[in-house]
Automatic annotation (TrEMBL), chain A:
This is ABC transporter permease subunit. Its main location: membrane. PANTHER family: GLYCINE BETAINE/L-PROLINE TRANSPORT SYSTEM PERMEASE PROTEIN PROW, POSSIBLE OSMOPROTECTANT (GLYCINE BETAINE_CARNITINE_CHOLINE_L-PROLINE) TRANSPORT INTEGRAL MEMBRANE PROTEIN ABC TRANSPORTER PROZ. SUPFAM superfamilies: MetI-like. It holds the Pfam family BPD_transp_1. It is found in: Cell membrane. The keyword Cytoplasm does not apply. Residues 21-207 form the ABC transmembrane type-1 domain. Belongs to the binding-protein-dependent transport system permease family. GO terms for biological process: glycine betaine transport; transmembrane transport. CDD domains: TM_PBP2 (cd06261). It is a multi-pass membrane protein. The lineage of its organism: Bacteria, Pseudomonadati, Pseudomonadota, Alphaproteobacteria, Acetobacterales.
TrEMBL record, chain B:
This is ABC transporter ATP-binding protein. The keyword Nucleus does not apply. InterPro entries: AAA+_ATPase (IPR003593), ABC_transporter-like_ATP-bd (IPR003439), ABC_transporter-like_CS (IPR017871), P-loop_NTPase (IPR027417). Keywords: ATP-binding, Nucleotide-binding, Transport. It comes from Acidisoma cellulosilyticum. One of its GO terms (molecular function) is ATP hydrolysis activity.
Length: 221, 370
């Protein structure tokens, strides 16, 4: 397996490992960015206003129950006639990953805001912070640890699930697993799995480091 | 001045939390809202900075109705201190305090300067500046909460049970510091408590509320003790109100302090016996401060610190009859020890003389300090 990875042949061409890693990260990054754009504001709004709590919890649970593989196949069948070229595969793939990433981001943002000490929020309102001021100066900074952990678990799930892109003829590290399976090249398959795992760990570590340096020491004990 | 004019608060479920409340909290004075749990104290307080909107009636700041003031401006004019301090956990002590100053538009650097001065003002060490709230005790957090409310130098202060989350010793300390602070800053303060002792100790004026949000009586502490308006107030003010009333009667004018013989530590029993005809002698330290009493009938060797009976309390020269009476009652000799401002011995007062002083104070009717 190691020799498979270190084999120079696998570092060039259309299936080169760096290229696959790049594709894999690109799908994941796009999906995460969209998921943050959707889940983060909803979580903030619901946490701050306490409106729609039940809806958020229900939606998150429903989304978690979706089978990624089944969904991507369904979406490819639906979108196939609509889009030309790779988009017919790319869009379904990103949608599936977004749906996977939204629940942890949304619910953790909401939970983080909801868990802020009510006395601190009350004091902030009484001092004369505007509603937005309370959110930006008190609730959001205090919720950051939980928000980061939501982002982390979303990232882990997205990177490991992004292998399904290859299932619908796209790139990414899933290629190694799918192709390896097709050619009964078990070393290639294992190499794919190991690379996905390693990538996940590295990205996770980076987020952990980033949160270490952004979070107030007052929130960590 | 804060004025309530026929203020009523009815919650959705039709509970009346505050019922037609009218009162005035005079400028520069401490007004206390006191009453049993659920009588509408917090509701009344939070209607002032409009965290709660009154159902009817008007609240005015210096004659201006609060509805006429922009909400953010209103709240920034009023310092607000709550029970568990409600500090911002992600900010350090000095940053927490600076927030109110920042809110009224003071530049960051200057706000932090104000904040670090206030740290000492409320009785904390400067080394606390860069700690986070979780690294503080409840009493220390409470002090930071007070400092934060003061940092914008508001005209008014609202305090909701600010000292209730701490143990009695720390509470006493915070109350003393608070009174000292208020003598300097002279803010118009409304404080909520359900502790009648705290109300009588801190208030220039005390408003007693009863269940249903009805004002039972508003009066000075001594008037509340000597002339409760009805059975509810009398009961709420408590059993020892006769004794506690003495806390408001000045002792200096009515009592003559007699010389009290004292022996320094290390005195031989024979020498000490020559100083007094009594069985008990007061022992002082090098600064002439009373340390305790010694029973000369029991004493065999030179007086050591471990021989001392420490039960006696001390009354200060400028104290009240309650302190003096307590000093006499608690001393094994039955003589209440009086000390000067530096803590040095001035003399003593006998129990009988104190009782006479109490009688004449009663006869005068209001021998009370205003
Ligand atoms: N948001 C609310 N909705 C409905 N009823 C409320 C609400 N807040 C308070 N009440 C009711 O109004 C009454 C007064 O409450 P308030 O909190 O002012 O009492 P309090 O005097 O501060 O009591 P405590 O000493 O226990 O703090 C109570 O009967 C309480 O149940
Ligand atoms: Mg209350």
């Amino acid at each position: 397996m190691i020799s498979w990875i270190t084999n120079p042949q696998h570092w060039t061409g259309s299936d080169a490992i760096p290229l696959l890693i790049g594709q894999h990260l690109a799908y994941s990054a796009v999906a995460l960015a969209i998921a943050v754009l959707i889940g983060f504001p909803i979580g903030l709004y619901v946490g701050h206003t306490r409106r729609g709590v039940v809806m958020v919890a229900g939606t998150a649970n429903a989304l978690r129950a979706l089978p990624s593989l089944g969904l991507i196949v369904l979406l490819v069948i639906l979108f196939g006639p609509v889009f030309a070229s790779d988009l017919a595969f790319l869009i379904p793939c990103v949608i599936v990953l977004v749906l996977l990433a939204v629940p942890p981001i949304m619910t953790n943002t909401y939970a983080g805001i909801a868990a802020v000490d009510p006395a601190a929020v009350d004091a902030a309102r009484g001092m004369g912070y505007s509603s937005l001021g309370v959110l930006l100066h008190v609730e959001l900074p205090c919720a950051l640890p939980l928000i980061f952990s939501g982002l982390r678990s979303a990232t882990l799930q997205v990177i490991s699930t992004a292998t399904i892109a290859a299932y619908v003829s796209l790139g990414g590290l899933g290629r190694l697993i799918i192709d390896g399976l097709a050619q009964r090249d078990y070393f290639e398959m294992v190499a794919g799995a190991v690379l996905v795992g390693a990538l996940t760990l590295v990205v996770d570590l980076l987020i952990a480091l980033a949160s270490r340096f952004t979070l107030s020491r007052g929130l960590m004990r | 001045m804060i004025t309530f004019k026929n203020v009523t608060k009815r919650y959705d479920n039709s509970t009346i939390a505050v019922d037609n409340l009218s009162l005035e909290a005079p400028k520069g004075k401490i007004t206390i809202f006191v009453g049993p749990s659920g009588c509408g104290k917090t509701t009344s307080l939070r209607m002032i900075n409009r965290l709660i909107t009154p159902s009817s009636g008007t609240i005015m700041l210096d004659g201006q109705p609060t509805e006429a003031i922009d909400l953010a401006r209103l709240r920034r004019k009023i310092g607000y201190v709550i029970q568990h301090a409600g500090l911002f956990p992600h900010l350090t002590v000095v940053q927490n305090i600076a927030t109110t100053a920042r809110l009224i538009g003071i530049a960051k650097k200057q706000a932090l300067g104000i904040a670090s001065e206030l740290i000492e003002r409320v009785g904390l060490d400067r080394t606390f500046a860069n700690r986070y709230p979780w690294q503080l005790s409840g009493g220390q957090q409470q002090r930071v909460g007070v400092a934060r409310a003061l940092a914008s130098d508001p005209e008014f202060m609202l305090m909701d049970e600010p000292f209730s989350a701490v143990d009695p010793v720390v509470r006493h300390q915070l109350q003393e510091e608070f009174l000292r602070l208020q003598r300097d800053i002279g803010k118009t303060i409304i404080m909520v408590t359900h502790d009648i002792d705290e109300a009588l100790k801190l208030g220039d004026q005390v408003a007693v509320l009863r269940t249903g949000g009805i004002l039972a009586q508003i009066a000075s502490p001594q008037e509340l003790l000597s002339k409760p308006a009805d059975a509810f107030v009398a009961d709420f003010v408590g059993r020892d109100r006769g004794y506690r009333y003495l806390g408001f009667v000045d002792a200096t004018s009515s009592l003559a302090v007699a010389a009290e013989p004292a022996a320094p530590l290390g005195t031989e029993p024979s020498t000490a016996r020559a100083l007094t005809r009594d069985r008990w002698i007061l022992v002082t330290n090098a600064a002439a401060q009373p340390m305790g009493w010694v029973d000369l009938d029991q004493q065999t060797g030179p007086i050591r610190e471990s021989d001392l009976n420490l039960s006696g309390t001390l009354a200060s020269q400028s104290g009240n009859l309650r302190q003096v009476l307590d000093a006499a009652l608690s001393a094994p000799s039955g003589r209440g020890v009086i000390v000067g401002t530096s803590g040095a011995l001035l003399g003593s007062v006998r129990l009988a003389e104190i009782v006479t002083a109490i009688e004449s104070a009663k006869a005068v009717g209001m021998g009370a300090r205003s």
